[in-house]
Amino acid sequence: MSDNDQPAAGVTFPDVFADVINVAVNPFGLALTFQLSDPSHQGDPIAARIVTRVRLSPELARALGDALVQAGQPAKVG
């Protein structure tokens, strides 16, 4: 990680863990809702607690999708 990847002094951001994701898409963008399931209610999506929600513009969502597809491709050698 380079110095450019660090937040500005005094700026903090949450570090979250999720094991459930809900994706909502509409013509104006995309929303990713990350949730943490309750182990005592296995298989019940209603029992999952929302930990964070990320909203993306259509352009950023497309770029994220492209990056995820590219990350899943085998590395080209030579």
Strand content of the residues, in percent?
25-35%
The number of distinct structural domains comes to 1
**Which word captures the global form?**
extended
Largest sheet: 3 strands, antiparallel
Specify the number of helices: 1
**SSE succession:** EEEH
> Residue ranges: pLDDT <50 for 5 or more in a row?
none
For the largest sheet, list the strands in their spatial order: 1-2-3
SS-based class: alpha+beta
By DSSP, the count of extended strands is 3
Mean pLDDT: 85
Q: Which percent range fits the helix content?
A: 10-25%
**Alpha-carbon distance between the two ends:** 26 Å
Computed Rg: 17 Å
Question: How does this structure look, described?
Answer:
By secondary structure, this protein is of the alpha+beta class. It has one domain. It contains 1 helix and 3 strands; from the N terminus they run βββα. It has one helix at 58-71; strands at residues 20-26, 29-36, 49-56. The chain has a 3-stranded antiparallel β-sheet. The longest helix has 14 residues, at 58-71. The protein is extended. The chain starts with 19 loop residues before the first strand and ends in a 7-residue tail after the last helix.
Précis, in short:
The chain is an alpha+beta fold and 78 residues long. Helices cover 18% and strands 29% of the residues. A hairpin with a 2-residue loop joins strand 1 and strand 2 (29-36).
